[in-house]
TrEMBL record:
TM segment ranges: 88-113, 139-162
Protein name: DUF1700 domain-containing protein
Membrane recorded as keyword: yes
Alphabetical UniProt keywords: Membrane, Transmembrane, Transmembrane helix
Length: 170
């Protein structure tokens, strides 16, 4: 529908669409609402009435739409606040899991695939460090570190994914 909107009508339409987007209303529903508002504006013009006064305040319009469609406004607001705090918690869980998994992986690999813990093999030039130096061979050390990094990234991503899924269900 191609009709010229006044500045007040454009502002009303944009504000309603932004607020609906904030409540995570689907794009399809927002397009339908936009179409309905445009049709209402055109009909009001044909009958010589003020369309904005008939539609009312944008917050009341959105609230009425949410009530008609059975969407609880309070739960949507609360859900938005909770989801922001959950993002921070998931980030902390992911970083802690990444570090712990990396250290465990490095320890396991150095115990079973290197001679770092072998009491019979002593090298004065080798300085063991669980973070970056678990083998005296540089290529083997780089390979083991790569394995540890990849494993820790995959495991931490899986833990964050399953933690997010379990919190969404509740």
């Amino acid at each position: 529908m191609n009709i010229k909107l006044s500045m007040e009508e454009k502002i009303f339409l944009n504000d309603v669409l932004k607020e609906l987007k904030q409540y995570q209303i689907s794009v399809k529903d927002r397009k339908n609402i936009k179409q309905q508002i445009l049709e209402h504006i055109q009909e009001s013009r044909e009958h010589g009435r003020d369309s904005i006064n008939e539609l009312g305040d944008k917050t009341i319009f959105v609230k009425d739409f949410l009530e008609i469609n059975g969407i609880d406004l309070y739960s949507k607001i609360k859900e938005g606040q909770i989801s922001k705090s959950k993002t921070g918690i998931l980030f902390v869980v992911g970083v802690c899991t990444l570090i712990a998994t990396y250290l465990c992986s490095q320890l396991i690999l150095s115990m079973f695939l290197t001679e770092s813990f072998n009491p019979l093999n002593y090298n004065e030039n080798f300085d063991y460090n669980i973070f970056y130096q678990i083998s005296d061979n540089s290529w083997w050390n780089a390979l083991l570190m790569s394995i540890s990094i990849i494993a820790s990234i995959i495991i931490s991503m899986l833990i964050v994914f399953f933690t997010r899924r379990s919190t969404v269900r509740w």
